[in-house]
Amino acid sequence: MGRRLAPVEVAGVDVLDLPGDPARRPLVLLHEGLGSIGLWRDTPRTLAGATGRRVVAYSRPGHGRSAPPPGGARTAAFFDREADVVLPALLDGLGITAPLLVGHSDGATIALLHAARHPVGGVVAIAPHVFVETDAVGGIEDAVRAFEEGDLRARMTKHHDDPDHVFRSWSDLWLDPRFWSWTIEDEIAPLAAPLLLVHGARDHYGTLAQLDRIEAAVSASRVQRLVVDAGHSPHLDRPEVLRDAIAGFAAGLP
Questions:
Q1: pLDDT exceeds cutoff 80 at 114
Q2: Does residue 6 have a pLDDT over 50?
Q3: For residue 35, is it left (φ>0), alpha (ψ between -120 and 50) or beta?
Q4: Buried-exposed string 87-119: b where 16+ CB fall within 10 A, e elsewhere
Q5: What would the pLDDT profile of 14-50 be if each residue is shown by its tens digit?
Q6: In what order do the strands lie in the sheet with 3-5?
Q7: What pLDDT score does 71 carry?
Q8: How many CB atoms lie within 10 A of CB 220?
Q9: CA angle 163, 210, 119 (to 5 degrees)
Q10: What average pLDDT does range 69-85 have in this prediction?
Q11: Which residue of 59, 124, 127, 221 pairs with 102 in a disulfide if CB–CB is 3.0 to 4.6 A?
């Protein structure tokens, strides 16, 4: 798998671009809050093989080997900027129109927002969140302890140029009480593209209430739901199940 820097307006975005059938819409992968290209593991290559489609994964600004984002503390506006500025610029630079989005956690939130405002062929939302749950706050507090007292920081150093920025931007936002009233349910109401919603039954960052709220909010006429025996990363815990589910979902789409 080769990486290249995409020629986009958001300079320095690190991109993994795997070729596929040019007649079919590409899959574009959006990683979690602490993620990067590398932390998808084998998922991009597996999906390329299972679907025959072009697969693109990228590290958001400040993640992985991508250039830092604009300065300042992260706020809820981060999700909108990623959905409305960074992702459209990336797609334009790669010549991609109306892709199938595969988002995980924060990446699923960004994918849902983008799909509500821009043309897409479909969305796979893995462990999505559209409002803040108590479970999420508790899980992030556990992650802070692992970062400060355990080996999480050392593990993140292998995948990020600036692991401290990645972690603190994520944890500080989610642990800010001012953020706990955040929701995007109204914002995703226009979303009409086909949806595959995936939840891990052992997810310590959220519950099935997230999927319930999404289904109630969106305008999509085709919504599939998959609950698997997994934690917050079903594509890593149960890769074959997710591969087959995503390939089956994509098979019925252009």
A1: yes
A2: no
A3: beta
A4: bbbbbebbeeebbbbbbbbbbbbbbbbbbbbbe
A5: 999 999 999 999 999 999 999 999 999 999 999 999 9
A6: 3-5, 14-18, 55-58, 27-30, 100-104, 122-126, 195-200, 223-228
A7: 81
A8: 19
A9: 80
A10: 93
A11: 124
CB-based burial, 144-182: b 16+ in 10 Å, e otherwise: beebeeeebeeebeebbbebeebbebbbebbeeeeeeeb
Tokens 């969106």 map to which residue? 218
Tell me the pLDDT band of 10, cut-offs 50, 70 and 90: very low
The CATH code that applies to domain 3-131+184-251 is 3.40.50.1820
For residue 113, give the amino acid letter.
L
Tokens 């299972």 map to which residue?
50
Tokens 């319930």 map to which residue? 212
Query: Helix or strand or coil: residue 186?
Result: coil
Report the distance separating Cα 76 and Cα 74, nearest Å. Answer: 7
Residue ranges per structural domain of the chain: 3-131+184-251
Alpha-carbon distances of 39 from 9, 64, 99, 213, 232, rounded to whole Å: 24, 9, 21, 28, 13
